[in-house]
Structure formats: C-alpha cells, structure tokens
UniProtKB/TrEMBL annotation:
Coiled-coil stretches: none
UniProt-listed InterPro entries: Sulfhydryl_oxidase, Thioredoxin-like_sf, Thioredoxin_domain
Organism from which the protein derives: Alexandrium catenella (Red tide dinoflagellate)
UniProt protein name: Thioredoxin domain-containing protein
Lineage: Eukaryota, Sar, Alveolata, Dinophyceae, Gonyaulacales
Protease in keyword set: no
GO biological process, one term: protein folding
Length: 248
C-alpha cells in the first residue's frame, strides 16, 4: 500500500463523526487499536493531545495529501512511530510513554491554523497537553529529531525495572497494612457485638423479671365475704312482738 493511500485512509478516518463530536464535546478514545499512527481531527485532538491524560508524549504529523513531500514523510514517519512505540510502550498497562498521530490539514484547516502550522510536513511534540517543540519542513533527519525529543528506551526500561520501594520501605508498608487490617477487624467485631448486646438488652427490658413472674403465678386471689344484712333488734318490754317471716 502506497503512502498516498495510507494518508487518504487516515484522512477518511479523521472525518468520521463520533458520538462525542456530535454532542459538541471533545472526543476521547483509545488509540492503541489504531496502529502506530492514530488519525486525529479537531475533536479528537483536543480530547487527547491537549489534555495530556494517559499519554506522556504525543508526536503529531501535520500534512496534506496533495503534497509530494508529505507522501515521502509519511512512510518514514509510520516506520519510526512503530519503532518508538514498541520500544517505549512495552509493558505499559494504564499509561503510554508516547503515541503518534497525524492530522490532514486539507480537511482540518482550522486545527492546523490553531497549531500554527505554516509549512508541510510539520511534526510537533506535545508533552502534558502543551506543544514543546516542532520540526517544520523536510530538512534534517526526523529520526535524529525524535531521538532528541523522546526519552530513551533504555532509560524507560531501567526505570520500570527498579522497584518502587526499598526493602525497609516495603517492610514498613507491610507493617502499617497489617496494623490497619487488625484495627479494621477489631472495629467490625466491636460493631457486631455491640449491636447484639443492644438487641439483647432491649429484649430483656420488654420481658418481666423472673422473680415477679413466679410470684404472680403463685398468688391466689382473695375472696371477699358478702356484706352482712342488718337484723332489727327485738323490743325488751311489752307490746306485740313482731316476727320476721323466717321465724314463722
């Protein structure tokens, strides 16, 4: 496949509408599955290169498809992008050291004007969302320029090979982690037992005491005697004695 065809494919992919672009927001995407060079448009450029998230260094080629110098630069640019991506991003999981991209200025003229692109091809280096260097035109070696701008693969490998913590720091971190785990376990135990004690105490308050309950069971209700009916006293002296019916 010729360099012109590759640039044409990149331009077509760059102008494809995305869901984020249709909503008016910058498009953020994962450029790992797009090969060594990711095609960008104005939306995806702002959402990835200018944010500085997930990638330390962005290298962007600004070109046009009708210029012969861009066709020649694209072929070497793609091979250098594959080489540097393989050496610098090997073993990276959440964050890449470098990513390479391209912008077709024949399609995204506004973006190229915003990035002060005056000559083709222009290769710009972005770090932390800001442009730090640029190589305009075809003069000079692009390979040497990239070696000067990007970190060395050997230094990156040594930095990844070095442990984050020394033996003493690792031992201290493990002790702190064990202490925290023990404190957390005690807290969970205290909360659980405290809830059980509170529930048992609440149930005991609702139930009668055993002594009073037993006393109430053995108590016999007292029967009250009926009230006595008053009887009229018999007269002591003469006269007719009045008898009650029960004396008849």
């Amino acid at each position: 496949m010729s360099a012109k065809a590759l640039l044409l494919i990149a331009a077509v992919l760059a102008v494809l509408p995305s869901s984020a672009a249709s909503s008016g927001k910058e498009a953020v995407f994962s450029s790992r599955g797009l090969g060594p060079v990711a095609p960008l448009n104005r939306r995806t450029f702002a959402g990835n290169v200018l944010t500085g998230d997930r990638v330390d260094h962005w290298v962007v080629l600004f070109c046009v498809d009708w210029y012969s110098a861009c066709e020649e630069a694209l072929s070497s640019y793609m091979s250098l992008a594959a080489e540097h991506s393989r050496s610098l991003n090997q073993g990276s999981i959440l964050r890449d050291i470098v990513r390479f991209a391209s912008v077709d200025c024949a399609v995204d003229k506004v973006l190229c004007n915003e990035q002060s692109v005056e000559d083709y091809p222009t290769v710009a280096h972005y770090k932390g969302g800001k442009r730090v260097a640029a190589k305009a035109g075809s003069r000079g070696s692009l390979a040497k320029w990239l070696l000067k701008e990007l970190p060395s693969g050997d230094l990156v490998g040594e930095a990844r090979a070095q442990p984050w913590l020394t033996d003493a720091e690792r031992s201290l971190a493990l002790r702190a982690l064990a202490s925290f785990a023990a404190l957390l376990a005690f807290f969970v135990w205290a909360v659980g037992h405290g809830a059980d004690l509170w529930l048992a105490r609440s149930m005991m308050r609702e139930l009668p005491y055993p002594e009073k309950a037993a006393q109430r069971e053995h108590e016999v209700p007292r029967q009250t005697a009926p009230a006595a009916i008053p009887v009229a006293a018999a007269p002591t002296s003469g006269g007719v004695t009045r008898r009650l019916p029960q004396d008849w």
